[in-house]
Write a structure and sequence with these properties.
about 270 residues; alpha/beta; Glucose Oxidase, domain 1; 7-stranded mixed β-sheet; two-stranded antiparallel sheet; 7 helices; about 25% strand; globular
Length: about 270
């Protein structure tokens, strides 16, 4: 008797066939980690994140003739990374709020990409507003529930860490979401999280907002996530891509570097 499953491949087989056959493109949205990778800078009276560091253990030599490997160290929020709810005080008492307890199905979700690159090129303090998201929806459809809202700014193209962090006496000057946008995305669109290309999800001047750091405070307080320091957002369509974002499974981890992958179907 013929096995019907052999003649009717399942969803996973179809997905794998699309990837291996080239019908589905895999786009890497991740910053390469090295000792020049920029890390967020807090006021000097606060604790600071370690920069990425790699020390060679052996490289096919007397320390290990057949082995190349390294020790690495860095802060949890280094390079392209995942922000878990426990990262912010507003999310500290939520259930399943750390990298080891978040349900794994939450690490796969759709993405909506809003192109703000021209605006950010003119104004490093540019803020994405509700009105601009609604204008995007008129062209591409409503932001689906439990999807990522990604803010494309081309900020990741700044190869000089000084330009990337863009610090002066007033703090950082990097684009991010308007303070009114964040609660709207949660309450009106039920997003799973917010991501962008700068070193943090909040705008560089967000400490001066009425609610300081609203993306951190509200997203994490409502059990949502963050994806800072993304790259290659120019390679994603406005809608329809699928993100894979699993952080390291660190016990009570507030986040971790993550290799963010996007699955993209060819555009007509």
């Amino acid at each position: 008797m013929t096995n019907p499953e052999k003649n009717n491949p399942g969803l996973l087989s179809s997905l794998l066939g699309g990837i291996t056959g080239g019908g589905i493109q895999v786009v890497d949205l991740t910053m390469t980690l090295d000792q020049k990778s920029p890390t967020i800078v807090l006021p000097p009276e606060l604790g600071q994140s370690w920069p990425f560091r790699m020390e060679e253990i052996s490289r096919y030599d007397h320390r290990g003739p057949a082995i190349y490997w390294n020790n690495i160290s860095c802060g949890e929020h280094t390079g392209t990374h995942f922000d878990a709810p426990i990262h912010w005080i507003s999310g500290k008492d939520l259930p399943n709020n750390a990298t080891d307890t978040i349900p794994p199905e939450m690490f796969i979700a759709q993405a909506c990409v809003i192109d703000c690159s021209a605006d950010a090129a003119e104004d490093p303090d540019y803020l994405l507003t509700i009105e601009q998201v609604e204008a995007w929806e008129e062209k591409h459809g409503r932001v689906p529930p439990r999807s990522w809202l990604l803010m494309r700014t081309d900020w990741s193209l700044k190869s000089n860490p000084v330009d990337y962090l863009n610090l002066d006496a007033a703090g950082a000057h990097t684009p991010g979401p308007h303070e009114d946008l964040v609660p709207w995305l949660i309450d009106e669109r039920d997003v799973i999280g917010f991501g962008g290309e700068a070193v943090g999800t909040d705008a560089g001047q967000a400490q001066h907002f009425n609610l300081p750091y609203p993306c951190h405070h509200l997203m994490h307080g409502r059990g949502r996530f963050g994806l800072p320091a993304l790259t290659n957002l120019d390679k994603l369509p406005p809608s329809g891509s699928l993100l894979i974002t699993p952080p390291l499974k660190i016990r009570q981890g507030s986040g971790s570097p993550v290799r963010v992958l996007a699955l993209v179907e060819p555009q007509a």
